[in-house]
Design goal:
Distance between the termini: 45 Å
Radius of gyration: 21 Å
Length: 112
Amino acid sequence: MSRAFRLAQAPPAAHEGGAHRPAHRVRADRETVEEDLLKLVLTIVELLRQLIERQALRRVDAGDLTDAQEEELGATLLALHDSLADLCAEHGFALEDLNLDLGPLGPLLPRD
């Protein structure tokens, strides 16, 4: 544990001629915290679904799967997509609403 503290960097020094400004803080609104948490969870599920879909396509292209496995995988991914879309609609979101803006990095989810 002491090694971890030694490796941790010191906080940045105050700017010359100015006071140290506090870091940006997360502002959670009590009215929307459940909705925001649900949206975050759905975003993570959508990200994982897309990653699994890409991996499945790589396996199909590589010929690693039998025809039956390809069929089952396709049906499963389609059912997952439909379930996620239904959950979004039930809570007033569209799948496009789940894409987080990461600023200079761009959107979290690739656009289809």
